[in-house]
Specification:
- Helix content is 0%, strand content 50%.
- The chain contains no helices and ten strands.
- The model has no long low-confidence stretch (mean pLDDT 96).
């Protein structure tokens, strides 16, 4: 199970860091991804990180503003968000991709991010 935290209400231009922590004694996966869903819209992929190598991937909409990282010892993935815009307002979710090409699974409950202009 994944648990997201760190959401909140901020002003445009502010920064915020989300956390995604896996429960259980051990954690092993191919990748962890962050997604977001705004009201009335489809879920959108935001970023992902290969768990063992720490290699990041970003959507064009957040590249240069968001940074994904992980702490293997803490079983936690982070999403550092800066220069936030009102378009970033959404519920943010994390999920795991157990093997390359697998669909994302083990979704967390989500954390709300609201950016006011």
């Amino acid at each position: 199970q994944l648990i997201e935290s760190g959401g909140g209400s901020v002003q445009s231009g502010d920064s915020l860091t989300l956390s995604c922590t896996a429960s259980g004694k051990t954690f092993s996966t191919f990748a962890v991804g962050w997604f977001r869903q705004a009201p009335g819209e489809d879920r959108q992929w935001v970023a992902a990180i290969r768990w063992s190598e720490g290699y990041p991937y970003y959507s064009n909409s957040v590249k240069g503003r968001f940074t994904i990282s992980r702490d293997e010892a803490k079983k936690t993935t982070y999403l550092q968000m800066s220069s936030l815009k009102s378009d970033d307002t959404a519920v943010y979710y994390c999920a795991t991709q157990v093997r390359p090409g697998d669909p994302y699974d083990h979704w967390g409950q989500g954390t709300q991010v609201t950016v006011s202009s």
